[in-house]
Specification:
767 residues, 15 helices
Length: 767
């Protein structure tokens, strides 16, 4: 089944009846938090308070690379109002932490490896006092030459005891001697995109009577954060509790552990609640960014443009620490050829440490970088052959049953050709009229320096793919409990709502399964069983699946007495619109009546089928599933000054099943917009490892005026049979695809190669 929305509006389910709000799977159920968020009364971490509160501040390194000669905290401790100063000497447990590899110090001790690395933290009775005390900590540095070029990291002195190489993946697939009649090559660079959350990091730590601590933070993976914190504090995990506060959006790992850990240390040291609210500058310095990437490609094709072999070298700049770079590299290498049939592929991938800011999980990590490169290569082949770029892509499009370069068979729905045809055939937008009132439609706006006669329109395409869930043997499991009492259902699951809509989905699942309108999702903390991180669409799949299983178990408990009374099985009973009826009409009652006086509950887990690590040749069934997207970009470029305006992005996406139409549309539009930023404006500049302009003035996020018309022209509902509900993650794949499509359109308008993201003005000036 496909759903088409040629007017850029996704389908919306009709209400259940006159005056009845929509509910259940397939309805555009609004978020339970939407009202309080729009009214500004939703409690985020920055809003928290506690009796006897102290304020924290962190001293961070002004250098990208330096040896620490000495740290003097005496002046800070002497300041009135200061309660504690902690450094590496005050960490009672493990001094190192990390998401996959424990290589990152809580506080730098002997050497600093990146600009902004924590050196010390202060707790005081006023935030200004805390900041002044942090500034009063005297650190003597021996400044060292930073390694900021990832290509030089291979020969440079080790920046870390583990060395500079984090991971190397050599992928070998097919015949190395294979060659095509046509060969194109390219060198591509992808910049450092920052997740730039609308709310900077904040948190509150409260000491417990048992000597433990509670952390109130906007965590996206609370159990992992708890375990890291407990190891650092030298405490058993049950003595550390993480309570998830309101998350102000997350397009990456929301909270850096290096932010949380000093907070708890200060609370344990002082015996008082301690609050830390990061400035925007600290936010830019502390959390992970998208991996800057250098890519070299060589494509071989036959005379018809069908791909014969792809050769590539991919180098990810991990920054100072490993974080999730190993996973990002696996995605980059595995998807280096894109959603195309490639019989022979030879890819070399590396992730290396440098003295640049740490890189980590940002939507579509690894996949975005290679998508921009392989789509540029496809444009080069089309240009050499004189073939329409869409037609060339169509000749090579992947389908279900094809083989990835990793040797894994694509068993999930892969309607790549259908998606491409949908955006190709969608009507193009009209050209702007040369009238004064339409000047704002030109690149640069009405006050731009260019002339309308210098504007050229370009049309380009992008095909992208992303993995679903974790990869390479990651144990993806989630646990959920559904309780029903007094006509209300409660869902208990540690899946964090980050804006992806999990709480709304959980309510819909229970409404659909049990026919109960009043559904509440409990707040998340680590007293609940773990549900894993909020990324790669895993909560829609894994946590949603756990909620569904628990709800079905409760449904069986509800229906069994009735089925037994009437001598039939529960499968012959159905729940619709709050009513329980039998297949023959003999039984008809309401859910409310059946629940009277009862309290029902069930707990269930969901665990997808296992995956395996890539072997020494880059081969293996590493991914649970994949999602695909096609985007056609239309841009206007002033070819004299290089300004670019994205006119329209037509999107066709493989969604498996539409669970909430309005929410799905919003997720796709948000993903596309994030991709526009990666394509045109967002690049955190770090000359010699120093972050320049770490604020929302110097870092150019796309605004509402930069956002183009986004036309969702087709949503392909071909259910993935191994996924709960058959649904696929929605937000990452448009982020991956839209920068490649925009670059393709700029190439079409200017005739320039456009081999760097974000696109610089000089790259969009026609020769």
């Amino acid at each position: 089944m496909t759903t088409e929305a040629g007017t850029a509006t996704a389908p919306t389910a009709a209400p259940d009846g006159p005056g009845q709000p929509p509910h259940g799977i397939g309805a555009s159920l609004p978020s339970a938090e939407s009202r309080v968020k729009t009214e500004g009364t939703f409690p985020y971490a920055a809003d928290l308070w506690a009796e006897g509160l102290l304020w924290a501040a962190v001293l961070r390194s002004p250098h990208a690379h330096a040896r620490i000669v000495s740290i003097d905290t005496s002046h800070a401790l002497e300041m009135p109002g200061v309660h504690a100063v902690v450094t590496h000497e005050d960490v009672p447990g493990e001094p190192l932490h990390g998401r996959r590899t424990a290589d990152r110090p809580v506080f730098a001790s002997d050497v600093v490896r990146h600009h902004g690395e924590p050196i010390a933290a202060v707790a005081a009775d006023h935030p200004d006092t805390a900041r002044m005390a942090a500034a009063a900590v005297i650190v003597e540095y021996e400044v060292l030459e930073p390694v900021t070029d990832p290509e030089k990291a291979f020969e440079a002195e080790p920046l870390h005891p583990d060395g500079n190489l984090i991971r190397h993946i050599p992928l070998r697939h097919g015949d190395p001697e294979a060659a095509g009649e046509l060969v194109v090559e390219g060198l591509y660079r992808i910049g450092r995109q920052d997740p730039a959350p609308i709310g900077a990091e904040a948190g509150l730590a409260v000491p417990r009577p048992d000597g433990g601590v509670e952390l109130y933070v906007a965590s996206t993976d609370p159990h992992a954060d708890r375990d890291r914190a407990a190891a650092c504090y030298g405490l058993a995990p049950e003595r550390v509790k993480v309570v998830v506060t309101g998350v102000p959006g997350a397009t990456a790992d929301r909270e850096d552990a290096g932010f949380q850990l000093p907070l708890g240390l200060l609370a344990l040291r002082t015996g008082c609640p301690v609050k830390l609210t990061a400035t925007r500058e600290e936010s830019f310095l502390s959390h992970a960014h998208r991996h800057p990437t250098l890519l070299r490609y060589r494509h071989h094709a036959d005379a018809e443009g069908r791909l014969v072999k792809v050769e590539a070298q991919i180098l990810l700049d991990a920054g100072a620490y490993a974080d999730t770079s190993s996973e990002a590299l696996a995605a980059a290498v595995s998807f280096a050829c894109g959603p195309y049939v490639v019989p022979n592929a030879f890819i070399e991938g590396w992730a290396v440490r440098t003295n640049n800011p740490p890189s980590g999980h940002v939507r579509g990590e690894g996949a975005l970088q290679v998508c921009a490169a392989y789509e540029a290569q496809m444009d080069k082949i089309a240009k050499k052959l004189g073939v329409d770029p869409a037609e060339l892509r169509m000749r090579n499009a992947m389908a279900t049953g094809d083989i990835l370069p990793t040797g894994q068979t694509v068993t999930c729905p892969a309607p790549v050709a259908e998606l491409l045809a949908a955006v190709r055939d969608f009507p193009l937008p009209e050209l702007p009229k040369d009238t004064p009132e339409d000047e704002w439609l030109l690149p640069g706006g009405p006050e731009g320096a260019g002339e309308p006669a210098a504007v050229r329109r370009g049309v380009g395409y992008g095909l992208g793919m992303v993995q679903l869930l974790g990869a390479e043997g990651t144990d993806e499991v989630s646990t959920a409990t559904v309780k029903v009492h007094d006509g209300m259902a409660t869902v208990i699951c540690a899946a964090v709502e980050t804006g992806q809509g999990f709480t709304t989905l959980a309510r819909q699942i229970v409404q659909e399964t049990l026919g109960i309108e009043d559904v509440r999702v409990a707040p998340v903390d680590t007293d609940q069983p773990p549900a894993g991180p909020s990324c790669r669409g895993r909560h829609t799949w894994v946590s949603g699946g756990a909620v569904e299983r628990a709800a079905k178990m409760v449904r069986t408990q509800l229906l069994q007495p009735l089925a037994h009374k009437f001598g039939m099985s529960t499968e012959l009973l159905q729940i619709t619109d709050g009513k329980i009826t039998s297949y023959d009409g003999v039984l008809s009652t309401t859910v409310t009546e059946a629940l009277e006086g009862k309290e029902l509950w069930a707990t269930a887990q969901c665990r997808p089928h296992p995956t395996e690590p890539l072997d020494e040749a880059g081969q293996g069934d590493a991914f649970v599933g994949m999602a695909f997207c096609a985007i056609r970009a239309v841009v206007d470029v002033d070819i004299e000054i290089g300004s670019v305006r994205v006119v329209e992005l037509a999107v066709a996406q493989d969604v498996g099943r539409i669970l909430n139409p309005a929410q799905l549309k919003a997720r796709i539009e948000a993903g596309v917009t994030q991709g526009v930023g990666a394509a045109l404006t967002e690049n955190l500049r770090t000359p010699r490892g120093i972050v320049r302009h770490p604020d929302l003035t110097g870092y150019a996020l796309p605004t509402a005026l930069d956002t183009p018309d986004i036309r969702i022209v087709k949503l392909v509902e071909e259910r993935d049979v191994v996924a709960p509900f058959g649904a696929k993650a929605a937000s990452a794949v448009p982020v991956v695809t839209s920068p490649a499509a925009i670059a393709s359109a700029v190439r079409a308008a200017t005739g320039r190669p456009v081999n760097r993201l974000p696109i610089r003005p000089q790259a969009a000036v026609a020769t």
